[in-house]
Amino acid sequence: MKSTDNAQLSRKSYNSIRVDFHSHTKCSDGHLTPAELIDRASNYQIEQFAITDHDTVAGVAIAEQHIRDNNLKIRLIPGIEISTLWQNFEIHVVGLNMDVQHPALTALIASQQQAREERAQLMADKLTKAGFENCYEDAKTLAQDGTITRAHFARVLHNRGVVSTLQKAFDKYIGKGQRAYVKPLWCSIAQAIEVINASGGYSVIAHPMKYGLSTKWLRRLIVDFSDAGGDAMEVVSPQMNPQQKLLSIELCEQYGLQASVGSDFHYPNRWSDLGKNLSVPDNLSVIWQHWNKEH
Ligand code: AMP
Ligand code: MN
Ligand code: MN
Ligand code: MN
Predict the structure, then answer these.
(1) Which of 15, 40, 54, 252 is the most buried (most CB within 10 A)?
(2) Which protein residue's CA is at the shortest distance from atom 23 of ligand 1?
(3) What CATH architecture applies to the domain 3-294?
(4) Where are the beta strands (DSSP E) in 114-165?
(5) Contact 206, 239 (CB under 8 A)
(6) What span, in angstroms and rounded, lies between the C-alpha atoms of 265 and 128?
(7) Burial environment of residue 92 by CB neighbours within 10 A (0 to 12, 13 to 18, 19 or more)
(8) Could you tell me if the CB of 94 is within 6 A of ligand 1?
(9) pLDDT digit string, tens, across residues 185-202
(10) Domain assignments of the chain as residue spans, ordered by start
(11) Can you tell me the distance from the alpha carbon of 76 to that of 63, in angstroms, rounded to the nearest whole number?
């Protein structure tokens, strides 16, 4: 057998592993604990799985312990979703397979968490001016000791009956350009990639179709990400329509990035679940080939 046949074969077998490399727990804005999420993924027969909470890796060790204690077969890939600011857009960069205890990662997490605290307080000030008091305190209560996010503020406004859906909280108050929006002081894409690389991981553009970018801007993002040493992009997310899937697969191939996939699961709902509809075309090389080669 020729070596190209071998490469083709192994690529195919990597692509067909059941995986999900984007999910959230209570350590940020997910609704399940790390143990509950692992049980769900395990019940769905997912072979390789990443918890990628917003600007924290707190769930990783808890999940690993749960896997050990229960002798589960699932392989957990350490992960994170880092918020970055690029050209005034909030772009999310997923890091996979890093050393979660690496000092560079710990330092970046600390500064991102501080930026989140400051933004949360400023956002609460703006909400107070809009007539809604103590949103910071209520959001903190929901977040407990996890990362505080706008999703928590959205839940506060929803629980109080201010908005009828979580989405409306973003559309009316805390989304970009709305009256309680605060521009966050996130790190740059280059900084996120540098730290992910320093801690031995791989970097991925999260859900590229969720930023509302035109194709022209999407190309710019991919070029900048790639120039900064980025590795991959999520080519399939459950929320993408067929045209978006085609476009992201085409761009991934065109710019020579590797492919990753993830559900971006936050809580059980009607539209998506762990590991569903995440298959990748065989012509793309997948990011998980790296850790499947390692022994
Ligand atoms: P943050 O990282 O604090 O800005 O919070 C963003 C999180 O809010 C996202 O990860 C989503 O889970 C959630 N979210 C829900 N709807 C929206 C929306 N329209 N825009 C941005 N974030 C949203
Ligand atoms: Mn989220
Ligand atoms: Mn995201
Ligand atoms: Mn996410």
Answers:
(1) 252
(2) 151
(3) Alpha-Beta Barrel (3.20)
(4) none
(5) no
(6) 31
(7) buried
(8) no
(9) 999 999 999 999 999 999
(10) 3-294
(11) 8
CA proximity to 77, closest of 41, 30, 117:
41
**Of the candidates 169, 119, 146, 118, the residue with the CA atom closest to the CA atom of residue 266:** 146
Q: What is the distance between the alpha carbons of residues 128 and 222, in angstroms, rounded to a whole number?
A: 38
The helix (H) or strand (E) run that includes residue 128 is: helix 103-129
Is the CB of residue 83 below 6 angstroms from any atom belonging to ligand 1? yes
Q: Where are the beta strands (DSSP E) in 209-284?
A: 232-236, 258-261
Q: What is the per-residue pLDDT across 92-130, written as a single tens digit (0 to 9) for each?
A: 999 999 999 999 999 999 999 999 999 999 999 999 999
Condensed to tens digits (0 to 9), the pLDDT of residues 63-85 reads: 999 999 999 999 999 999 999 99
User: Does the beta carbon of 149 sit less than 6 angstroms from any atom of ligand 1?
Assistant: yes
Kindly report the backbone phi and psi dihedral angles of residue 69, in degrees, each rounded to the nearest multiple of 5, phi listed first: -60, -35
CB 204 within 8 A of CB 237: no
d(CA 208, CA 219): 10
Which residues, 6+ apart, have CB-to-CB distance to 177 below 8 Å?
Answer: none
Tokens encoding 274: 């762990």
Kindly report the protein residue whose alpha carbon is nearest to atom 8 of ligand 1: 151
Regarding pTM above 0.85, the answer is yes
- Mean pLDDT value across residues 208-231: 98
Residue partners of 143: CB distance under 8 A and separation at least 6: 29, 149, 152
Distance CA 83, CA 33 (A): 22
